[in-house]
Design goal:
Length: 50
Protein backbone atom coordinates (compact mmCIF):
# COMPACT_ATOMS: atom_id res chain seq x y z
CA UNK A 1 0.00 0.00 0.00
CA UNK A 2 1.44 3.34 -1.05
CA UNK A 3 0.33 6.93 -0.59
CA UNK A 4 -0.74 7.06 -4.25
CA UNK A 5 -3.78 4.96 -3.27
CA UNK A 6 -5.13 7.76 -1.05
CA UNK A 7 -6.79 11.04 -1.93
CA UNK A 8 -7.80 13.53 0.77
CA UNK A 9 -10.67 15.88 -0.01
CA UNK A 10 -12.36 18.62 1.98
CA UNK A 11 -14.73 20.01 -0.64
CA UNK A 12 -17.45 17.37 -0.70
CA UNK A 13 -20.98 18.12 0.45
CA UNK A 14 -24.36 16.56 1.15
CA UNK A 15 -27.46 18.12 -0.37
CA UNK A 16 -31.18 17.47 -0.06
CA UNK A 17 -32.58 15.80 -3.14
CA UNK A 18 -36.02 17.43 -2.89
CA UNK A 19 -35.01 21.06 -2.30
CA UNK A 20 -31.50 20.72 -3.75
CA UNK A 21 -30.11 22.68 -0.81
CA UNK A 22 -26.68 21.97 0.65
CA UNK A 23 -27.17 20.48 4.12
CA UNK A 24 -23.56 19.79 5.09
CA UNK A 25 -20.49 21.10 3.30
CA UNK A 26 -16.72 20.76 3.54
CA UNK A 27 -16.87 17.10 4.59
CA UNK A 28 -13.36 15.80 5.37
CA UNK A 29 -13.06 12.70 3.21
CA UNK A 30 -10.38 10.13 2.45
CA UNK A 31 -10.83 8.29 -0.83
CA UNK A 32 -9.13 4.90 -0.97
CA UNK A 33 -9.51 2.62 -4.00
CA UNK A 34 -12.76 4.28 -5.05
CA UNK A 35 -14.36 4.12 -1.58
CA UNK A 36 -15.07 7.26 0.43
CA UNK A 37 -14.41 7.40 4.17
CA UNK A 38 -15.29 10.35 6.38
CA UNK A 39 -13.92 11.20 9.81
CA UNK A 40 -15.87 9.36 12.52
CA UNK A 41 -16.09 12.42 14.80
CA UNK A 42 -17.39 14.48 11.87
CA UNK A 43 -19.99 11.77 11.22
CA UNK A 44 -21.13 11.73 14.87
CA UNK A 45 -21.32 15.52 15.06
CA UNK A 46 -23.16 16.09 11.76
CA UNK A 47 -24.89 13.06 10.28
CA UNK A 48 -26.32 11.39 13.37
CA UNK A 49 -28.24 14.55 14.23
CA UNK A 50 -30.04 14.80 10.89
Amino acid sequence: MTSENFEIRNDLYLHEIINNQIVIENIPTVIYQGMEFIDYEFYLNHFTSL
